[in-house]
Amino acid sequence: MLSPSFLSWLSRPLLLLLLLSPWPIWAQAPAEVPPTGTPGSRDCPEACACAPGGQANCSGRALPTVPEGLSLRVRALLLDHNRVRALPPGAFVGAGALLRLDLRENGLRRVHARAFWGLGALRQLDLSANQLEALAPGTFAPLRALCNLSLAGNRLARLEPAALGALPLLRALSLQDNELSALAPGLLAGLPALNALRLRGNPWACGCALRPLCAWLRGHPRPAPEAETLFCLSPGRLAPSPLTAFPDAAFSHCLQPLSARDLAVIYALGPVSFLASLAVCLALGSVLTACRARRQRAAARCPRRPQNLGPGWASPAHSGAVGVPPPPPGSAY
Ligand SMILES: *[C@@H]1O[C@H](CO)[C@@H](O)[C@H](O)[C@H]1NC(C)=O
Ligand SMILES: *[C@@H]1O[C@H](CO)[C@@H](O)[C@H](O)[C@H]1NC(C)=O
To answer: Where does the signal peptide begin and end (predicted)?
Structure first.
């Protein structure tokens, strides 16, 4: 039996652990927000300089991690030119009112899928000039208010639609200067408000995988200012081709993705053809049986050539009663 005092003794270090944890997701209870306050007070991370508008300037301070002490009064967090190599889960918890986050030039390599939890108000996120090679699915999912995202100057060779997710308000996306050769088909579909897409400086490969991007560029001819200067490289050719030179007809040889109707037909065809062949077999079987029974009845009525019946035809009357005669000799069952 555990006594209450034992429990409280047990929970004390646990509580301490929770409070000291660098990523206190559970400690997200919104602190009281004083309407006014002096800049550089306890609401400002120690390593940074805070301005009255809610700007925490932590630029260029060789910080290895996101500074602690973020509060709801921080509206813009300038963390550019530091040494934040990885963002752990809940890295910005406590800064739920953040509108702008600048993480340029940190040598950032890893962003945990839950790093941006709690940043539902964020509108501008700059992750440019880092070392990102991949982004986990759901990384940007909490950023429902995001308008402007820069991933320029990283090492992204692939960008899955699940990493961006659905960002209903995203207007500007920069993927410039990465290692992308194609955009995944669903990627642009989740970004209905997008009108500025920066794509230069990627090794786009001319081919079917480029179809969604070319279609998007045709649908947004003006807002993508550098569309004319985008090129893709064909495997066999040396000269790059401009992306805008591909009409949709150029992709006519590409396999169309199956529509919902096609899929429905395919799924229905399986069971239907199975049932149909079953019915055909049953019908054929009963016709055969009926024919045989008829022949037997005819043979029973005029038993003129009994020598033709093999040993299996023991008693015509008996087999007629059963309905299914035994096989004649030599028939392969
Ligand atoms: C942030 O602080 C640095 C000096 O630490 C300064 O050079 C820079 O201009 C500041 N940035 C802004 C936006 O105030
Ligand atoms: C997005 O942010 C970048 C700087 O971070 C700025 O240069 C650009 O104009 C912004 N775009 C939009 C559409 O707000």
So the answer is: 1-27
Please name which ligand lies nearest the alpha carbon of 169.
Answer: 2
Q: Are residues 189 and 53 in the same domain?
A: yes
What is the CB < 6 Å shell around ligand 2? 124, 126, 148, 150, 171-172, 196
pTM of the model: 0.66
Q: Which of 224, 229, 153, 231 is nearest to 188 (CA)?
A: 224
Q: What would the pLDDT profile of 129-141 be if each residue is shown by its tens digit?
A: 999 999 999 999 9
The whole-chain average pLDDT of the chain stands at 77
- Given a contact cutoff of 8 angstroms between Cβ atoms, the answer to whether 77 and 101 are in contact is yes
Instruction: Tell me: do 46 and 127 sit in the same domain.
Output: yes
CA of 55 to the centre of ligand 1 (A): 10
99 Cα: distance to centroid of ligand 1 (angstroms)? 18
For the chain, how many structural domains are there in total? 2
pLDDT one-digit tens code per residue, 223-278: 555 655 788 887 777 777 777 777 778 888 776 665 667 667 667 777 777 788 78
Q: What are the DSSP E strand ranges found in the chain?
A: 49-50, 55-57, 76-78, 86-87, 100-102, 110-111, 124-126, 148-150, 172-174, 196-198, 231-232, 241-242
Higher pLDDT, 6 or 153: 153
Domain-embedded: residue 92 = yes
Q: What is the CATH number of the domain that holds 173?
A: 3.80.10.10
**Cα–Cα distance measured from residue 100 to residue 51, given in angstroms and rounded to the nearest whole number:** 14
Q: Which of 193, 219, 253 is the last residue of a domain?
A: 253
261 belongs to a structural domain: no
Among the bound ligands, the one closest to the CA of 194: 2
Q: Where does a domain end: 253, 278, 313?
A: 253
The alpha carbon of 146 and the centre of ligand 2 are apart by a number of angstroms equal to 12
pLDDT beyond 80 at 293: yes
| Nearest CA owner, ligand 2 atom 5 | 126
| Residues 52 and 108 both lie in one domain | yes
Residue 180: beta bridge partners?
none
**Angle at the Cα of 183 from the Cα atoms of 177 and 188, rounded to 5 degrees:** 110
